[in-house]
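At this stage, I wrote out one protein, both as residues and as discrete backbone shape codes, and that material follows here.
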Amino acid sequence: MGVAENTVIENIKTRRSVREYTEKDVSDEDIKTIIDAGVHAPSGFDSQPWFFVVVKNHEMMKRMSDHCKPRLMEQLGDATNDAAVAFKKQLADDNFSIFYDAPVLIIVLGNNAGFTTDYDCSLCAENMMLAAHSMDIGSCWIGTGCFIQDNPELLEELGITPDYRVIAPIVFGYPSKECHESEKKEPEVVWVH
């Protein structure tokens, strides 16, 4: 017997990474709801190793973006595929923000002492993105934002202590256009009965 489509499965299948946002603010109450969904993720040994920084200050996001952009450009190096070339052009634009001018950035940080911190915080991040989608709020995990970890000045201003590391910088906001699904590859599955 198969599993019927339901609202949870539909929410998972229709969530998209949003890279264009309106200027509409995401309320603090909605942000609290999104974070609350995150902390309901499972964690190894029930360690709950997460810590959150909410950034709504666009000047701070610009400074963070300006710090991260050259590091990503260096990482892309001599990549010549179409997507990398197009993204390098964006990165070269002084006005381009890796946070896509979203109204809010939530940084999910993980406690360095945890055994399963990376996994736990990733599960937390996915819960947050799915919750946001169910509220008609778009999101995008900005992996490049992790480069702020090597900037002590920014970390201090953000209230991030050495006990924590950046796991998932995620932007949230209201999409300015409809995002379409990319084609999903057929998964490779080994069945052992």
The mean pLDDT is 95. Helices lie at 7-14, 28-39, 58-76, 82-92, 117-134, 152-158. The first helix runs from residue 7 to 14. The CA atoms of residues 113 and 157 lie 22 Å apart.
